[in-house]
Amino acid sequence: MKFVDCKELKVAGLEALEKQTSEKEITLKVIQVKGDKASDIYVRNKAKASLKAGIHLDHILLDEDVQMEEILYLIESFNNDDAVNGIMVQLPLPKHLNESSIINAINPDKDVDGLTNINLGKIVANEEGLRPCTAQGVMEVLDNVIGLDNLVGKKVTIIGRTKLVGLPLFHMLLNLNATPVICHTKTENLSDYTQTADILITAAGASKPFIGSDMIKDGAIVIDVSTVKDDDGKFHGDVIYGEVKDKASYVSPVPGGIGQLTVLELLRNTYKAYLFQHAIKNDKGKQFVLKN
């Protein structure tokens, strides 16, 4: 089985990013609403990584009972502030807040989570834009395992249809001439789709691992995006790793896999947003963008 160390990819990516951000003032605003303990950990991880990447992260922590108007006002002020290059809202939000309205209030050129309808639409149209971080992390792993040029014609089964992972991945893979299929909770005979896939990407978030060796083909690339904490405080994904690793050509681990790269992609998006906003040109006169 091929081995790709996502932690090493993250470290190398942050080091490369720090060189690119040197002598540039780049600011990321992270808006968080109190009440979700996991979000506290995720924001701390983003803050640590941003220091290594040479990007200033400004954390705005709001009370649980904050109203829509206050968040929308904050976003609008950041949209209009030229010193702010990236804006993200830490999810999930309390139920009294309209997540879609809040996300889509962000200027798409500063939407470093890549979740606005406009940026998702750019993926469908195969136009340059800011991609969802977890989906882009999956593409980073695929690039290192097989090479993006080698995705042409490959059968890809994706389990999960969220805007964070499944939907953007479907179109990103299609744009590279792969042949993706999306499965979900209503899909019948799931193994019919997983057993024939050259690449299996799962983001089901199952309560316990359920993808065993009988559900994949020999030599398949298996990428497990899910990270679920069990009652004992241990993390697991959708894949029965010990069972699948001997049959697959690659299996991403949980923990220590795609989650490592999500933060890296957020910071890459922030740098990319900076370049968009400052219209930095390369020597061919085209807008320079960070490698996706």
Quick structural gist:
The chain is α/β, with parallel strands linked by helices and 292 residues long. It has helices at 6-21, 37-53, 68-79, 99-103, 117-124, 133-145, 166-175, 190-194, 241-244, 258-278; strands spanning 27-33, 56-62, 86-89, 155-159, 179-183, 199-202, 221-224, 228-229, 235-236, 250-251. It folds into 2 domains: 23-107, Leucine Dehydrogenase, chain A, domain 1 (Rossmann fold, 3-Layer(aba) Sandwich), CATH 3.40.50; 133-258, 3-Layer(aba) Sandwich (Rossmann fold).
How is the secondary structure organized here?
Elements: H1 6-21, E1 27-33, H2 37-53, E2 56-62, H3 68-79, E3 86-89, H4 99-103, H5 117-124, H6 133-145, E4 155-159, H7 166-175, E5 179-183, H8 190-194, E6 199-202, E7 221-224, E8 228-229, E9 235-236, H9 241-244, E10 250-251, H10 258-278
Parallel strand pairs: 1-2, 1-3, 4-5, 4-6, 6-7, 7-10
Antiparallel strand pairs: 8-9
Name some characteristics of this structure.
single chain; 292 residues; alpha/beta; Rossmann fold; 5-stranded parallel sheet; 3-stranded parallel sheet; 10 strands; 38% helix; globular
